[in-house]
Amino acid sequence: MSVLVTGCTGFIAQHIVHDLLEQNYKVIGTVRSEEKGDKLKSQFHNNPLLVTEVVKDIAVSHAFDALFEKHGKEIKVVLHTASPFHFKTTEYEKDLLIPAIHGTKSVLESIKKYGAQTVERVVITSSIAAVKDTSKFAEKDFVYTEDSWNPVTWEGSQINPQDAYRGSKKFAEKAAWDFLDENKNTVKFKMTTVNPALIFGPQTFAANITESLNTSAEVINAFLHSGPETDVSGLKNDFVDVRDVSRAHLLAFQKDEAIGQRLGLSSGQFNAKDLADILNRKFPQLQGTLPKCAGEGAYQTNPYARFDISKTKKILGFELKTLEETVCDTAAQILKAEGKL
Ligand code: NDP
C-alpha cells in the first residue's frame, strides 16, 4: 500500500514525507518537475520507499489522472497538501483561487475514476484561514471552533491577496466536503481536513534555508533580519509548529476518531513582542538587532478571538509545541545557516 502526498516539495509536506518514511510507509509524492523530484529524493538519501511523479500544475483539469492510471491500485491514502500559499499576486483567481479549488476537485475526481474502491482515507490540508472570521479578530471574548467557517464570499476574495487566500482555502475545503457528500455512494474513502494556524518550525533539511523562505517560516526569517526600528505592531496571530502539523496529518488517517472531522491546530497566540522576548533571551547575540517592539499598547499581549480546538486535542491526544520551542528551533536553523550560531 502507498500514501500519495501532493506537493511534496512544500514546507509541511517534506515533514510529512519524512514522518511517513520513518513509519515505513511507501510514499508517492507529486512534484512540479523532474529536477525537484530528484533533489528531494537525494535529500531523503534515495530511500527506495519514496517515488516522485511530476504533476506540473494542479490547476489544469485531470491533473492527477496519469498518476492514478499508473499507481491507482496501490494508493490507499491520499494527503492533499499542494496549494498556493503566498500573497505575491494581483491575479487572485488565476494564482490562488483556481489552483486551490481545481487542485482539490481534480485529485478527488481521479480517486473516483481510478481508486473509488481502493483509496480508503483522504486528508486535505485546509487552514485556519478557512475557519476564522477576521472581522472578529479583536473581539477577545469571541470563540471559534472546528465547526466555524470564514464569511468570505467569492466577490470578497477579489480584493486583496490575503482575502483571496482565505477564499481559496474556504472554497477548496467546501468543494471537498461537497464532493464527498455527492459521491458517498460511489467512493469508499473517509475524509478528514487539517486546519492549522500560521506554521513555524524548522525546514526538514537545513540545506533548504535560503534568503527568503516559504510564506509562514518567512515571518520569523524577516523578523530576524528587520532591524530595531521596524514597526512590527501588526504582527499577531495563532501559531503551530510544523512537526505537530505533520504528526496530525498522519494521525488524521490512522485514527478512526478523525473520520469526518476538521482538525483545528493552534498552539495559541503570539505577538511581535513575544517573538522579540524569546529571541533576545535565547540568542543574546541578537540583542539590539531585533525590532524594539516599544510603544503604547501595541505590543502588549492582548488576548483576541480564540480558536478553541478542544475537540481536536481529544482526537489527536498529544501536546502541541510551545511558542518558545518552535521559534527557537526556527531561528537556530536560520542563524546556523548564516554562520551566526
Ligand atoms: P509551500 O509553499 O511550502 O508548499 C506548497 C506546495 O504546493 C509546494 O510543493 C508547491 O510546489 C505546491 N503547489 C503550489 N501551487 C501548485 C500548483 N499550481 N501546481 C502544483 N503544485 C503546486 O506551502 P506550505 O507547505 O506552507 O503549505 C502547504 C499547505 O498547507 C497549503 O495547502 C497551505 O494552504 C496550507 N497551510 C499552510 C500554513 C502555513 O502557515 N504554512 C497554515 C495553514 C495551512 P512548488 O514549491 O514547486 O511551487
From TrEMBL:
CDD domains: AR_SDR_e. The lineage of its organism: Eukaryota, Fungi, Dikarya, Ascomycota, Saccharomycotina. This is LANO_0A04918g1_1. Residues 3-258 form the NAD-dependent epimerase/dehydratase domain. One of its GO terms (molecular function) is oxidoreductase activity, acting on the CH-OH group of donors, NAD or NADP as acceptor. Pfam families: Epimerase. Belongs to the NAD(P)-dependent epimerase/dehydratase family. Dihydroflavonol-4-reductase subfamily. Keywords: Oxidoreductase.
